[in-house]
Amino acid sequence: MDFALISSLHGQIDRKDQILLCQQALDRERRNGTGDDGAAMYIKKIRDRYWAVHFPGSDCVAEHAVEHESDEHRYQKDYWQRAAEDAGFNVTQERSTGHGTILDVAIEGPRRTGVEVQRSSIQTRSVKTRTTKSFRAGWLPVWFLDSDRRSPWFFEVPTVGSNPRPWSSMPPRRAATAIGPRRLVATRCTIANMDTCPAAAGKKPKRPCGQFHPIPEPWGGLTVDDVAGMVPAREIVPIRDLRGDVRLIPHADLELFRELTGTFGEYEPDTRARRGSRAPRTTACANPHTSPAPAAEAKVCSKCSRSQAGPGGVLCARCYDAIAGLPARVSYDLAKPLRK
């Protein structure tokens, strides 16, 4: 439990807010199939101690002590701080955003980044609420889980997992593997590659369309240290992919996303329904073989560095052809030139 954050809620919570919820009461609701049994709690201060207590009328009468952070929580914050400082950024801990949230680690960079170290269970609604508040205060929140487990909200907000480790002491630099960030791969939408079209609108699944889509695939070899330096530098950016999941991707892949989808792609909280906003220079998600000839003012292809790029300003038609010839599900690195 994050002591600074939870204790700061003293006198700030109403029953209807549903900010602080009792996991025991929620588990009982799921088992019994009942409605609200009174999971909502508020913060009560008794002498010098803080307690999370239920509102009157709750079926759960337990009072939960709000304790100071564990050694593991402190080591994880220190790990992120050290990594960000190694990358050249100014870093502080327990920083208030001024919008009702406190960041475990606040990294000052071209993109102000706040790290939320989460070791205890928390509801998806609370995670998204805190994320939205911090985002509106000018911070990009990145949630950190200290294992490779997947929480229900892992792809609902920008999230980084890590390889399981005890965290009973401060790990050496680059010891924590980052789990969650993705590379985007231009993949033809066929039955051999995907069951349904990820770009289809509406809730009803639709057959593969035969066009190319940017599909997220695991980004190997990345450490938490890399993420701590690359997100504030805008070298890693959050997007909402075609299926509505929030992904952390290389900034270089953002242009590929825009090229293939015709949308901006960059993540903002509570914008799942508005994913169709148009990018300034776009082309339809179409078969690259039929792409129109590049305009005279088009940029040089970022793949071969020789031919003019297509309408999206990223790849030339020949490089698109090379992508089309790749075997299904073969990852290709946007930074490496294709053989011609």
Description:
The chain is globular and about 70 Å long. β2 (40-46) and β3 (49-54) form a beta hairpin. The N and C termini lie far apart (56 Å). It has seven helices and 14 strands. It has helices at 3-7, 23-32, 71-86, 124-136, 224-230, 251-261, 317-324, and strands at 20-21, 40-46, 49-54, 64-65, 90-96, 102-108, 113-117, 140-144, 159-162, 178-179, 182-188, 212-218, 236-240, 246-250. The strands form four sheets. Strands 5-6-7-8-9-10 form a six-stranded mixed beta sheet. Strands 1-2-3-4 form a four-stranded antiparallel beta sheet. A two-stranded antiparallel ribbon has the order 11-12. α3 (71-86) crosses α5 (224-230).
Q: How large a portion of the residues is in β-strands, by DSSP E? A: 15-25%
Distance between the termini: 56 Å
Largest sheet strand order? 5-6-7-8-9-10
| Backbone CA Rg | 23 Å
- Main beta sheet, described? 6 strands, mixed
Low-confidence stretches: 271-298, 327-340
**Helical residues, percent:** 10-25%
Shape: globular
- Helix/strand order, N-terminal first: HEHEEEHEEEHEEEEEHEEHH
Structural class: alpha+beta
